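idk why but the lab printer keeps eating my pages so im just putting this in chat instead. protein + flavin-adenine dinucleotide:
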Amino acid sequence: MAAEVLATGGFGVTVVDHMPSVGRKFLLAGRSGLNLTHSEPIERMLERYGEQAGRLEPALRAFDADALRAWSAGLGEPTFIGTSGRVFPRSLRATSLLRAWLRRLGDLGVAFETRTRWIGWDVGALVLERGGARHTVSPDVTVLSLGGASWPRVGSDGGWVPVLRDAGVVVHELRPANCGIEVAWSSAFAQRHAGQPLKNVELSIGGVSVRGDAMITASGMEAGPVYSLSAPIRDALDRGMAVLAVDLQPDLDEAQIVARLRRRRPKDSMSTTLKRTMGFSATTVAWLREMVGAPLPTEPADLAALLKEVPVPVLGLVSVDRAISSAGGVAMDEVDDGFMLHRMPGTYVGGARRDWEAPTGGFLLQATFATAVAAARAAVARAT
Ligand SMILES: Cc1cc2nc3c(=O)[nH]c(=O)nc-3n(C[C@H](O)[C@H](O)[C@H](O)COP(=O)(O)OP(=O)(O)OC[C@H]3O[C@@H](n4cnc5c(N)ncnc54)[C@H](O)[C@@H]3O)c2cc1C
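predcted complex ->
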């Protein structure tokens, strides 16, 4: 995106990427439905970026969801709004969008140097490595859009962090965001129930609650509501302990649950009662037993209280390479309003890797695009 803005602004542009082709994570994001942005009003959208909203606001207003949708349509992929307000390209995939985009960049004269890794600076020149050989280039402006550290096999390996740190730039550790959690399951439970959902549950931690289906994995839990809570879970882990509260019956209050539990038939086992009166699946019942680790309370009031708040001790987040995105990156104070590094005039940081994070829902790509546009526009303005 930075290349497009720079080339449109009259620059000769070279995109350098160490992978054999560009846009691999973009393609990966498209595999499960490319959620380009969100249709909610900008004021609500800004809240998704938490404490960095203020720093991102000018960029997000200057290249907002409408601008991104128009850009996509201009590349032959009109967008539509899904039921949750999320915005997708017509094909749902990134493939044809990327193909049309690369054609446009080619027409603008943008050159691509793939299999080429940027490894640092040498007296102000960029040092690039290709096939073991090094060469230097001295462009008028540089936009670093190096991604985070999730899914390194598509290119974003975070290898740039020590390079920038060595240059004196403050870079906060890249940590997992929008990711699953590790929970201590017995192997018998994991083998039997991994891949099964806990349907319509509400997860809470640190005053934040999210509803949805949580997926059981071999080593913990994942899916939308778990991803949404990764920031408060990370904060709690940093403070020493994270315990997720899971409400298995978010549509009922305790009194309603008690009334249902009292319909227990004398011959029914506890499992049968929970399935029959609560509508729980065998997996939900097994999960409850696994989490409690002792016989379930038989008194309806006690059981109802438990069902409304099952404590789940979180061992940790999954590692950053398995996360959807990363938190951390170049500290916001290291860049000016145009995302230029104070320490390196002419070098900008665009895309996902300044110190912001956001939930899934299209907010990651929206800010990635918007900050790349802002950085490149600032570069064009500075150089002309
Ligand atoms: C499975 C998955 C699904 C996703 N789905 C969505 C979604 O639907 N909606 C959404 O908003 N977001 C989604 N995301 C997040 C989104 O893909 C990222 O926010 C976005 O790709 C970030 O763009 P970027 O250009 O900053 O970084 P990247 O896309 O990671 O690109 C960085 C590029 O830099 C290259 N690079 C890195 N280091 C060097 C180096 N030293 N030298 C040369 N090249 C280098 C890499 O090879 C890579 O091509 C998803 C992510 C994943 C993993």
